[in-house]
Write a structure and sequence with these properties.
Metallo-beta-lactamase, Chain A; 208 residues; 14 strands; 6-stranded mixed sheet; globular
């Protein structure tokens, strides 16, 4: 699997374009905007976009969804099943404040803990990681975890926004993420990549 990272939007959100090298099927995680460099990467690699996956429903992670779905009509929007109250509520997703426009979505695919998506020969396993939001998810691919705003390098996502809860986030990290192999690379929603092992040792916000 190949991964390209694009830091996009006013809050520097990490948008990930990933694809199976054999089939050229691809998915996008958390498109803050639909930037020209993302469009160019899809075209230059000859990719077929299958999914747009949201780790959660905040406006800095979904500003590019509408444009991407319009540009690639065969693609499907996927998000955690419990994230519907945020994706459908402008007062909760803050899209207007962040992007300047009201955005609400009904995902094509509602994901539960343990669900799997196939992208070519790559299997994506969904891990429910609520806490930053009620329906937040992380996405486990071979050797890689897309953690959204659940787990950052030496930090965690904030829990003071609607549906956020620190205790829930702490349990998600300890019980769902820290139990993964130490060498799993973590691609977070903001800031630089890390590994599960590094966070277990050095993340002062949630200790193992």
């Amino acid at each position: 699997m190949q991964i390209r990272t694009f830091e996009l939007g006013a809050l520097g959100t990490n948008c990930y374009l990933a694809w199976d090298e054999v089939s050229k099927e691809a998915f996008i995680v958390d498109p803050a905007v639909f930037a020209e460099e993302v469009r160019f990467a899809i075209a230059s690699e000859g990719l077929s976009l299958k999914y747009v996956i949201l780790t959660h429903g905040h406006g800095d992670h979904l500003g590019g969804v509408s444009a991407i779905l319009d540009a690639y009509p065969g693609s499907m929007l996927a998000a955690g099943k419990d994230e519907a109250p945020i994706l459908g509520n402008p007062s909760y997703n803050f899209a207007e404040y962040i992007t300047g426009s009201i955005e609400t979505f009904i995902p094509d695919i509602l994901l539960s803990d343990g669900d799997e998506l196939s992208v070519g020969g790559v299997t994506l396993k969904i891990i429910a990681t609520p806490g930053h939001t009620v329906g937040g998810i992380s996405i486990l691919a071979p050797g890689v975890l897309f953690s959204g705003d659940t787990l950052f390098r030496e930090s965690i996502g904030r829990t003071d926004l609607p549906t956020g809860d620190y205790g829930t986030l702490e349990r998600s990290i300890k019980e769902k993420l820290y139990t993964l192999p130490d060498d799993i690379e973590v691609y977070p929603g903001h800031m630089q990549p890390t590994t599960i092992g590094y966070e277990k040792r050095y993340n002062v916000c949630v200790r193992e």
